[in-house]
Amino acid sequence: MHSAVTSPAPDWLVVPDDANDLVPAVWPASVARTSEGELSIGGIAAGALVREYGTPLQVLDEGEVRRRAAATRSAFDAAAEEHGTTARVYYAGKALLNTTIVRWVMDEGLNVDVCTGGELEVALAAGADAGRLGFHGNNKSTAELERAVEVGVGTIIIDSALEIERLAAIVSRTGTMQRVMLRVNSGVHAETHDFLATAHEDQKFGTPLDAAAALVARIREIEGLAFAGLHCHIGSQIFGVAGFRESAGRVLDLHEQLLAGGDVPQLNLGGGFGIAYTRADTPEAIETLAQGIVAAVAEGCAARGIRIPALSFEPGRAIVGNAGVTLYEVGTIKDVALENGSRRYMSVDGGMSDNARPALYGAQFSARLASREGAGEPVLVRVVGKHCESGDIVVDHEYLPDDVVPGDLLAVPATGAYCAPLSSNYNHVPRPPIVAVHDGASRVIVRGETIADLLGRDAGIER
Ligand SMILES: *Cc1c(COP(=O)(O)O)cnc(C)c1O
User: Fold this and answer.
1) Domain span at residue 394?
2) Residues 187, 263: one domain?
3) Per-residue pLDDT tens digits for 196-207
4) For residue 362, with 0-12 CB atoms within 10 Å meaning exposed, 13-18 middle and 19 or more buried, which class applies?
5) Taking the model in full, what pTM does it have?
6) Taking CA atoms, which of 122, 135, 218, 229 is between 20 and 30 Å from 441?
7) Are residues 110 and 47 in the same domain?
């Protein structure tokens, strides 16, 4: 029945009974098919969105962002309360940052992390209370640090010995008291289902555990710096609690040692909670993760006979990833014969300029026909972009109905995180708008680029 079974599909991709099916974990909860079979998001049909805003189009479901922000916050609140502490959730702004999303997540009680002066300005432009911002980065400039201190950023996460001195000079000049944490590298690097634990991890972020006590001693000497605790972030798209447990254990050894020299009120264990991009991904509920991670910290503290600190977490992808859906129009279709079957290449009107993750990380995505339900048998498809690069892949492997034709709309789910922020103007393709949908209404939250925008920076054009 399925002619595609001889095709070069990866093992994880099963042939669906119906290539129009919607796997709940990858889509916003509002996604449904209309009575005509069209995909709708936030109560609006894909075709209506495209008629109003064009393609490619980045759609962001406001209700989904808010629901995930609120659920994450209450999951960590509940888990922390159970173990006699508190938990703060910071939205990692680098996943997707604009003033609207900052307002949504802050409304839902989250704090926000930024990692450059530019990200800081977006959060401030949104009217964010600077006291609820965390400032990260392994190379914050003096100007960036001065701005952060001046506006009253709640916590600066110090990454290196050099940064301590850079910040010390600023606070001694301004007479400010700045709350800081120290980012440590626990030697645990988690990715997806596995984690790697070494004595020394070979990467640029943070301070190795065995060098951190001396840096904390130095921070404590500086009058204008208030040491709040340790920070550790072990990676991204992590499933399960094992990596967090291993890392927390190592960081708690240092935390315990630091208690001899003064208070260590907090512990920040970073973000990285995994989401579903395809039907093969099965992330845990946020409640399960929160319970597991906080329990692991509580056990670690009990074993060392120390009080459990106030906890912080920094999810980015888990808040916005599944709230985003990108709509594209199919342009060309060709079947390419391979030794073990054939592959259908389906080109859409965007690509690596609006979603660099497949080219950058080999990331997997999924896709569905959005303009209607297809009637054909599932056929193995590779969705590609319009850029002059053979790695310009949007969805590496997917089964779509074999009657998809040029002019049809495709929807790619789970594009809410790390797509717009990593977008480019490669091949002078304008970046798409970001449109928020909610309860049948839509509005532009970041406008699309125009050709005039693209030409605007070219100093060789007479104006
Ligand atoms: C990127 C990052 C995060 C967020 O990671 P997600 O995988 O999006 O949850 C949190 N903390 C730090 C320090 C980061 O660099």
Assistant:
1) 32-61+322-455
2) yes
3) 888 788 889 999
4) exposed
5) 0.96
6) 122
7) no
